[in-house]
Fold this sequence. Notes:
Two copies of one chain form a homodimer. Chain A has 453 residues and is mostly helical. Chain A has helices at 2-10, 14-22, 26-33, 38-46, 50-59, 62-71, 74-83, 86-95, 98-106, 110-120, 144-154, 179-184, 191-194, 208-218, 238-256, 271-288, 290-298, 300-305, 313-336, 345-378, 387-418, 428-450, and strands spanning 137-138, 163-167, 173-178, 202-203, 222-226, 232-237. In chain A, helix 19 packs parallel to helix 21 (387-418) and helix 20 packs antiparallel against helix 21. The longest helix of chain A has 34 residues, at 345-378. The mean pLDDT of chain A is 88.
Amino acid sequence: MEERILELIEGKKYGQLKEIFSEMNPTDLAIILSEVPHKELTVLFRILPKELAAEVFVEMDTDMQQFLIEAFSDRELKEVLDELFMDDTVDIIDEMPASVAKRILMQTDKETRKMINQLLAYPDDSAGSIMTTEYVDLKTNMTVEAAFARIRKVGVDTETIYTCYVIDASRHLLGLVSVKDLLLSQTDKTIGEIMEENVIYANTHEDKEEVAALFDKYGFLALPIVDKENRLVGIVTVDDAIDVLQEEVSEDFEKMAAILPSERTYLKTGVFETFKARIPWLLFLMISATFTGAIISAYENKLTVLPALIAYIPMLMGTGGNSGSQSSVTIIRSLSLGDIEFRDIFKVIFKELRVGVFCGGVLCVVNMVKLYLIDYLLMKNFDSGKELYEMITICITLFFTVIVAKLVGCILPIIAKCIKVDPAVMASPLVTTILDAVSLFIYFATAGVVIGL
Amino acid sequence: MEERILELIEGKKYGQLKEIFSEMNPTDLAIILSEVPHKELTVLFRILPKELAAEVFVEMDTDMQQFLIEAFSDRELKEVLDELFMDDTVDIIDEMPASVAKRILMQTDKETRKMINQLLAYPDDSAGSIMTTEYVDLKTNMTVEAAFARIRKVGVDTETIYTCYVIDASRHLLGLVSVKDLLLSQTDKTIGEIMEENVIYANTHEDKEEVAALFDKYGFLALPIVDKENRLVGIVTVDDAIDVLQEEVSEDFEKMAAILPSERTYLKTGVFETFKARIPWLLFLMISATFTGAIISAYENKLTVLPALIAYIPMLMGTGGNSGSQSSVTIIRSLSLGDIEFRDIFKVIFKELRVGVFCGGVLCVVNMVKLYLIDYLLMKNFDSGKELYEMITICITLFFTVIVAKLVGCILPIIAKCIKVDPAVMASPLVTTILDAVSLFIYFATAGVVIGL
């Protein structure tokens, strides 16, 4: 399909293209147009029916949108803008350079411009920044029939009609009715009689991630957003909530991999931009490894007496780091899903302590067997005359490192959440760096006690 | 609120509770009931209005559901089951022990039972396993008015009425109409005239994660599911798609932290279960660290000549691991969002190569300065007479380790995807273990060339 379209574009068969395009899904169409050279874009965009053109425009990436806006005449620009939903318009303006943003605003009428400026003023991570101001509002004294008339009148310009919001004269939110309720009610009942009054809503300045989590928890299709005076100012729809959930996950992944979050997709991000997102944590973690280096340096002379111990440093640090990541990642995910809270900290610690003892115990025993059979008998790694003590040192270190790793891994993210730092930052690399130092301390302390190093 | 309810429960004020409960959101109510001792549960559940009772029941966790089912009389059980949607019934049966599942099936009529058994037969990760069979179906020759009559008739028992599916006599999917389209159309138009014919659908045996990704991509509220003969057999709704997306993310997190995926929330999982999910990878990674140990052992005697080099092993391995995780996690997330595909592998490799050269270069220079100023001049870590050569060895190793780490980190997940292994398994711990060995190889090879070790 895609190939055939690209062929038709090359052959400039606009008549056939027009027919194919008009039947296509806007998302798919935007993907195909992203493969086309920019100079063809304007012509192709012009053959789209007006409504579809706007839908495709919303799905395009910022570069393409900017290119098109700059190619549009004022009239064309206005035509596209008239078809857009308010939240999409605001998102586009937000991404454009100032001159383009200004040109867009000039094509909107005074009232719309005021609304756009209001929406632009909400902080980037607030519910206000993802809401749309177009929804169906009803009054309590309307009949079901009158409600349908209103839906027919304003519905074509709203993002969803399936949940209608009931407000009083000063726009306070009184309740909601779904179109399903309306369809299943007698037409002469009033909205006041059939509306649901226990409405779950959010405030414009609430964190958009918390608002998105409500969709996951309750299965909403839309959520009303009110201002400080509890007046209804907009709604968030489920598709925007899914976007927020996905962005949040990507951000968590990045933080957990010690990368500064970025907003663009991988292939759209330049090499230098990727470099800038990755180098700060790499530098910080490299410098902080000075501590592990310092600990080893302090024991350098003693290690040359029992060089076999050196070979097990990576295994001990690795197992410590892996054990810690297992806990920290589990806790980070549970915190973000709302499965655990700060008040559960002692339950979590107690559980991780027991899991740590089990894991540490099994690893300790398996390692002892492996050390004796493979490393000692088969590979003859130990020849200092203190073999047994060395092996015991390694296994005891393993046991305690795993337990400490589990505890550090579970405590750090919970504390981070409590002091309002994103728990994801407390994931693998940072925890691992701390545990590297901890496991060396345990190693040399144990060696001191067991071997008298 | 929650405290007041718990107080009322303790005081057995069922009259007041009934009133409060009937106004509450089912999800919230299920959360509150999870705090109540099991013996109170049956009484409290019985005071709920029938429809709400079923909605609360669906939101409860498996333990509570099983307890209630066992406490129900056959008539009570049937009443709850009659109010449930088909997909929820199937999910519940799927989680129950065989005896309870059998009792549930006995309370359903023959036709429903046949349908349930069909749904139970779909593999756990297929679209069929998350679909519901209750939806509004229309015929092309119906008028808009007749369509509304049908929605009013069957709508009360379907999960969504907002998208209606148009089928022919043998249930082949012909198109869809939204209730919005119906409301905005003249009542005497036929469904055939107004329906959307380019319908995006999925097959029952498709991977449920791929189906959920379609909701993210297109912003659907529901997606039709067809069987092998292209007959409509069910729909997936957006709330279930969000659940799948969230489960998938949790699974990716677990795999990336070297944990076997589990289905229960953290606090609901027993200590032994958590232990079982974590120990296999810990054991595997511990044993595989034998390789790094073996490499160090091989150079043991040489290292005792230049002991200062030992202190930098953790830093080199750590930086290698971190650099590799940055790439692998970015690539894993981009693969699962569909931002990159196998055919992009050379673009990705070329990009990571350049990012690796930049990152490695900066780290190399910063480290040289730090080694000279802090480690050499200030802390006097080097005293072998070959200081400069040692420092150069460390920095060259750093440079090449970072580059190799970036390449390994990006290539492994893409190859995993290509051979149908979940890329998330190729994340941090496995990549890190490989890179530990690689960085040591580079270290000792460089030391051999530069110092002649």
